[in-house]
Amino acid sequence: MSDLxxxxxxxxxxxxxxxxxxxxxxxxxxxxxxxxxxxxxxxSEAYLTSSEGxxxxxxxxxxxxxxxxxxxxxxxxxxxxxxxxxPAGHILGSAQIRVEHKGEVWVVTGDYKTxxxxxxxxxxxxxxHVFVSECTFGLPIYHWPDPRTVFAQIHAWWQANAAAGxxxxxxxxxxxxxxxxxxxxxxxxxxxxxHGAVERVNAAYRESGVALPATEYVGGVADRARYRGxxxxxxxxxxxxxxxxxxxxxxxAIVSGWMQVRGMRRRRAVDRGFVLSDHVDWDExxxxxxxxxxxxxxxxxxxxxxxxxxxQERGLQADVLSTRFVGDADDIDAIAEKA
Length: 339
Known about the structure:
By secondary structure, the protein is an alpha/beta fold. It folds into two domains: 179 residues, Metallo-beta-lactamase, Chain A (4-Layer Sandwich); 128 residues, 3-Layer(aba) Sandwich (Rossmann fold). Helices cover 21% and strands 25% of the residues. The strands form three sheets. It has a seven-stranded mixed beta sheet, covered by helices on one side. Strand 16, helix 5 and strand 17 form a beta-alpha-beta unit.
């Protein structure tokens, strides 16, 4: 089987179609899986993304970027190569990139999850010959709890803090995780306040038609007594910053798949850790790989060597692609507001 896609110094390149997928350097044409900073970098001449993701990608790249947005499943032809975008379930607008040429089909996942999420389209299984997949949480220790259980835990924690007259500061990535938290909590418990970076992304989600509860930017709160009993959503980069001091004696928590690892909460110096990830866990990863029917699997980021060896031992052709994607890393980037 030929290499329809190959790694170059600029990123993952399709020579037949003359485009790159999530390039890490400026290129002529970039096809973007989603708007997180390690997958969507500024400077390219033209971008292709999903219609659902155009507003968050615009927020990432700025007003001057040339962005073409297409609905999920609608093909775009580049030099005879058929390209289509399919829901990845990671964040709003996230897409798997299906590339077809001369009967050969490759699928590049970007980041993805198969669990339903009210803030983005549900993951769509796309069969292919070659599956280019992330494996951020590619170890058997990672098994996600039911999100309903996690949100029940968040509510109980928030209510206990409110009863004690304390603010509840919860950390989640400004793009994607924060909106998933907002969509899942019970807004009747108390005020929902946000860090500036989160509120900017909220605006892009609302512009995209995603229903979120009413929120208020922390910087606009005149009466600090309103902090008591509030749930305050902020990016992980705000933890430990002077920004947090305004809340006085507050409870802190982080929402992440990494919280499944014992001791991670202490390492992050927060009071609570809630296990909620926007990536596939081990079982979801294995089920997805099998269901694609792929003859070959390429792993882009995460526990790539472990997953590749596991698949090889089960008779599948699997290899590691050394990319610059980082998966579930702190989203400290141009949209983060020092507030």
